[in-house]
Design brief:
2 copies of one chain form a homodimer. By secondary structure, chain A is α/β, with parallel strands linked by helices. The longest helix of chain A has 28 residues. Chain A contains 16 helices and 16 strands.
Chain lengths: 391, 391
């Protein structure tokens, strides 16, 4: 019986071009996983999502255990069927959301007890129960329960937390029911302390996992520190398993992490931005509420190949956002996810050519150049034709 | 120069199977127009909308003149380009929304002045300005400005209002710039009084319009009264022009009106319902918030051919609605519009076969039978397969 299988296709420095084979399909890496918190990538139909190029989505154990319930999803045939996403699904273990969303938390060696943010009811999440829930959901990739430490944190507190997370990882491994094409990932902790990260990675590798995640980063530390910790951590992980940097990030974070050998990412940024009037393009983030867009007939990015840029002007997106229309959230989310997937495809192609550094430098240049100059009105009629056909 | 052209293909009693030829495409009638208030059919992309079978959409002069402004839309190339809907668009004149949404209204012979519900700024809408706005929007079909009387209303008040609306219709006609494939529709008023309706229709026909709308119905009067007024009104309208019953309605209203010779409809019901957890099927309306759907693996209607019923269980829709997910509004709106378009296709096919009465009787029977029996859980595993593939 084999779990998910990682195939290394090419390398460019520390960067890797790979392929992750799973029971629900193959994922080209480096890959970005859109976040489908409550069994939906917000404001996207499964068909729109597939059209972005996404090959795997992430869902949240914490949210799904509370509503609609893991046992219910199992009775309904599992999460793939429930959310009509037949492709691979990775579920986080719920640890991070318990810490950020739940109320009246108590954490001890057994696990964590908490009150639901929805109805106040008490729940317990242990390493064993987290694995069981993800099994009920039929997750392609199950994550071990861990504690994501805040930043900054004292070294001894980080060490104690990390060591408990490692004991939890071992218990998760013991509780996990291995199946062909399904995988269990361990999560490296240890905050920003290289020796703790190394100890954590060693402990996980000794247990043996199908993939290794790097948790506890992108929690407020400077980017340079994140990259330094990442380098130290990645060098301690086996080359034949996928590496997943949790909760990251901005395009420039992705570029730096890909260059340091990370294969998988997830982040709410493109989807959450889409619901708050923010678009991501190679020019950086844009605020569509800004009046500068009100008369602009140009798409978000004239060179973007996504369905939103093919059909809709900035002026229209501005209007939708100002009017509070659902379609505004839909179109901006759609574009943002297309941008992220195109970015990942760009990383993959660059690694294959051995040209990742040049690709990253171009990204940096384009972002530094900022957005298109404000629309001057010049050439508007020429571009959009006469406002009326001749009589 | 000809306006929109109506082709009568078949009749079944008073019911008509027709085709409306316009500058932006052909509409098979009887047709239902989804409402795209603010240049978006709420929660639908243009591609999803097209997929429902919709051939024409309605947009609102009142909303668009206030935001983003008619002159702005004209500069951006017109409403078709603005909302990425190249097909036919009918715009209402704004009269109805001024009466239902605007503040501090004053109506006199010149027109109506009001304060915007968005920012309190004062605006004037005259018959001439309403036509000009719709011209700026590049509406395929322009509606004359009229006053939609409330129900009930005294006969003399109804007569005075209707006669002013008829003078406005004449001014609208004079202000209208005719173009090939574009049309101007008059609106019959007169509340529930057959002699006033006849007088109104006669006045409009004397002016001459590309189509005739029936306004001032579905404003609270009983269905039987609406049908009686409709019969009296339709009989006074020319057979070679399309007839449009404004703001109607429920499936059973559509059936009755189609049988009485109406060709065009619009209503917010399928879209508004979709945003308030209500689904329309041949079984009648369903409330997806109801706990009876929580474990139901069946689609809204097992016989529905729409993309929502093909992919999603009631249990999932229930979950989305309970979780306040945007996708819930998207999927229910999508299904509802598919249901409405399938209903219209059913009317059209039945008229062609001379079998409208039998078709309407079947609709009535199915609706009377009510929703599917609650899900018993029987056959769930058989239907949805094992919750897990064998190891």
């Amino acid at each position: 019986m084999t779990g998910v299988r990682f195939e290394l296709l090419a390398e460019d420095g520390a960067a890797r071009r790979g392929r992750l084979h799973t029971a629900h399909g193959t994922i080209e890496t480096p890959a970005f996983m859109p976040v489908g918190t409550a069994a939906t990538v917000k404001a996207m139909t499964p068909a729109m999502l597939r059209q972005t190029g996404a090959e795997i989505v992430l869902a949240n154990t914490y949210h799904l255990m509370l509503r609609p319930g893991a046992e219910r999803i199992a009775r309904l045939g599992g999460l793939h069927r429930f959310m009509a996403w037949p492709g691979p699904i990775l579920t986080d273990s719920g640890g991070y959301q318990v810490m950020s969303l739940a109320e009246r938390r108590t954490l001890d060696e057994a696990g964590v007890t908490f009150a639901s943010h929805l109805d106040g009811r008490r729940h317990q999440l242990t390493p064993e129960r987290a694995v069981e829930i993800q099994d009920l959901l039929d997750a392609t990739v199950t994550m071990v329960l861990d504690e994501c430490t805040p930043y900054p944190i004292a070294p001894d507190a980080a060490a104690a937390s990390m060591r408990r997370s490692m004991r939890w990882a071992e218990r998760s491994r013991a509780a996990y029911r291995a199946r062909a094409g399904y995988g269990l990932f361990g999560i490296v902790q240890g905050s920003v302390f290289p020796e703790l990260r190394a100890e954590s990675a060693e402990a996980l590798v000794a247990v043996g996992f199908d993939g290794y995640a790097i948790g506890g980063l992108a929690v407020g530390e400077p980017q340079a520190l994140m990259f330094a910790v990442l380098e130290a951590t990645v060098s301690t992980l086996p080359a034949d398993r996928p590496r997943y940097l949790m909760g990251v990030g901005k395009p420039e974070d992705l570029a730096g992490a890909v260059a340091r050998g990370v294969d998988l990412f997830d982040c709410v940024l493109p989807t959450r931005s889409g619901r708050t009037a923010q678009a991501w393009t190679r020019f950086g983030p844009l605020n569509l509420r800004n009046a500068r867009h009100a008369d602009d007939p140009r798409p978000l990015d004239p060179d973007c190949a996504c369905p939103v840029c093919a059909a809709h002007a900035r002026a229209y997106l501005h209007h939708l956002v100002k009017a509070g229309e659902i379609l505004g959230a839909m179109l901006l989310t759609w574009h943002n996810l297309c941008y992220y997937q195109a970015l990942m495809a760009g990383f993959r192609a660059a690694i294959e050519r051995g040209a990742l550094a040049a690709f990253a430098a171009r990204l940096e240049r384009e972002r530094a150049g900022g957005d298109l100059a404000p629309w001057s009105g010049q050439g508007l009629r020429a571009r959009s034709g006469l406002t009326r056909p001749p009589d």
